[in-house]
Amino acid sequence: MLRYRNRARGFQVAGALLMGTVLAAGCASDPSDPLAGDGATDSVVVGSANFPENVLLAEIYAQALEAGDIAVQRQYNIGSREIYFGEIERGSISLLPEYNGALLAFIDDSSEARTTDEINDELRALLPGGLTILDSAPAENKDSLVVTEDTAERFSLETIADLAPVAGELTIGAASEFEVRQQGIIGLRQVYGVEFGEFVTTDNSGPLTISALERGDIDVANIYSTDPSLATRPFVSLDDTDAVFGSQNITPLVAEGAFDANAESIVNDVSARLTTTVLTDLLSAVVTDRRDVDDVAQEWLSNEGLIG
């Protein structure tokens, strides 16, 4: 049986310090309430989940919209999908950068869609009334299971399937929602027969997860595939041969009626320029080089000719 520990509380102070760069992009309204608006009705509200890449993507879309003379409110670091999805349904958020495969799994965990087009077709059919998606970016960021080189060598690990006979001896670290997601512990058990000995709650593919893996506090980590640590540390990302994590294109989730044709065109133009390589480089500038999110977003948009 999977044992469960919550280390997130012990990591809170360090996590808050390390997230400082991301929070510099901040919310335009009361920072004590990430969902409190300023009462304006003629602006769009761009939101984000609570991890660096999503904040960066939100800021990119926000600046592009502002360059098109569209008033924008920012509501960043709201939380996980389980938290922010209800806010979008209620109309508190106009746009949030999503990951199409994970969003579909959240809505219908029995879906067998795998390609970008299949996933997006199902999303448009299944999303609650009042919500839709805009064009997907070529860029993808997937969940991945990562081990150290030493662990990979010790247990002869190359693929997620290789974990099945040894997972009972191993501890996995991830955000709490990973334990209850189809594209998480549930899917790993159903698809690969992987049953970890222990689940430790860390953070959402952030510095706490990476540090825990480096120190040996956990044996396996859920780290996003665009994370710069995968290229700079002695880590091995295990191949997802049966695609439990599916396609994960960056895909804006929007409230219908919040955007006119001009705003949709602006967002779609941004998405078309976002490749996985571009996203990885931009995220490295934020996470590794500790640059401000708004500066990184502005520089890229300017270089692409998307803002003046």
From TrEMBL:
Q: State the signal peptide span.
A: 1-24
What range(s) does the ABC-type glycine betaine transport system substrate-binding domain occupy? 43-302
Q: Entry's Pfam families? A: OpuAC
Sorted alphabetically, the keyword list is: Signal
GO terms for MF: transmembrane transporter activity
What GO cellular component entries does it have?
ATP-binding cassette (ABC) transporter complex
Q: Per its UniProt record, what InterPro entries does this chain match?
A: ABC_Gly_betaine_transp_sub-bd
Q: Where are the transmembrane segments?
A: none
- Protein name (Swiss-Prot/TrEMBL): Glycine/betaine ABC transporter substrate-binding protein
Q: Which organism is it from?
A: Hoyosella rhizosphaerae
